[in-house]
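Long-time lurker. I teach an intro course on protein structure, and each term I like to show students one example going from raw sequence to a predicted 3D structure in token notation. This year I'd like something fresh instead of my usual example. Would anyone be willing to generate the tokens for the chain below so I can use it in lecture? Attribution to the forum is fine with me.
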Amino acid sequence: MKEKVEAVLAKIRPRLEADGGGIELVDIVDGVVKVRLQGACQGCMGARMTLKMGVERIMKEEIPEVKSVEAV
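-- Reply from a regular --
Happy to contribute to a lecture. Here you go:
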């Protein structure tokens, strides 16, 4: 599953980098993907929306075993 998650993050990463941000996989526990937001994404007011409406939505579409995506 880690390889699948990394592949999805590789698709998402350019969008975040275009705005000066980034994302790093930290861990996967029982279908919960834990990520660390980087760059401009840290402390951004829209980071939670980006995480849930963007990253989590895409992750669940491509990997049905993913239950949620959380920032750590």
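Some talking points for your students: The chain has one domain: 2-71. The first helix runs from residue 2 to 18.
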